[in-house]
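Bumping with the actual sequence this time:
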Amino acid sequence: MTLKDTFALSWRNISGNKLRTGITVAIIAFGIMALIGIITSIQAASASLTTSFSTMGANSFSIRYKERNVRIGGGRQRSNAKLSKSALKEKRSNMGKVITYDEARTFKERYNFPAKVGLALNGPRGIVVNNDRKKTNPDVSVLGGDENYLELNGYKIAFGRNITPTEVESGQSVCLLGSGVAQKLYPGNSEKAVDKVVSVDHIPYRVIAVLEEKSSSAFFNTSKIVITSYNNIRRLYANPSSSFNVGVMVNDIKMMDAAIGEVKGTFRPIRKLDVKEEDNVYIDKSDMIAALSALDRYPQCAAEIGRRAGGQNIN
């Protein structure tokens, strides 16, 4: 049968079954339109969520020390499954070792990955901030960070400027006020707080910025904070049990796993871990990243389903 005969036979079948042909063509056309619409919508949602998550700090993760487990009444529990000989061992002496200032600084200097690194140290909670006329309730938290802290944690400046590396190194008494604190001390005009001196836990600080309002959780009110440098917190409040938190922010969420792998490789020699020992730091990252990664796979799955469906004959 020649090509001409094939076309002639196909035309006769189409002419003899116009209704069936029309229904088949309509189903295929609507199916392709729906598939394109679904893929476009998912990709648009993925791009929008990526931007939103980046603003919220979801493209960053934090590193903290692995606390020693304390169990009451049961002693140390063992898994029912037997560990293989090749499994990494966890030294009890390595548990509960805080991340020191020197370790955090060394990590920031050695971490060789296209990402931003920030250091932070928690200060006191439940403190009072006041000026000459007004004061807050005793529910303000003090945090110490560096020049990258705001970006890594999704904060934005409403008025003023960010803390500088020089101020971080010297531990100067400068601070950034959360929106709730600024509104309490300077009601109706938070901008007035900039360049003013306020008392934070009876210690004078010069305000260099007021932060924009940020969504809070049931456990932490992001508007009732005072941010200063980690060296300032270290000088005034640190004790032997104080541990630094290290934050890392990647430019692309898809680079997260590679960045985490580089973190582990960089931290192990700094923490003086043997090759057979398990890591003694925790890496915390947002569950939204996993959800977004799953969302990115939907267009490929939809396209594959459409391709397979398009290859089937409709009888």
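The tokens above came from a reply further down the thread. The first helix runs from residue 3 to 16.
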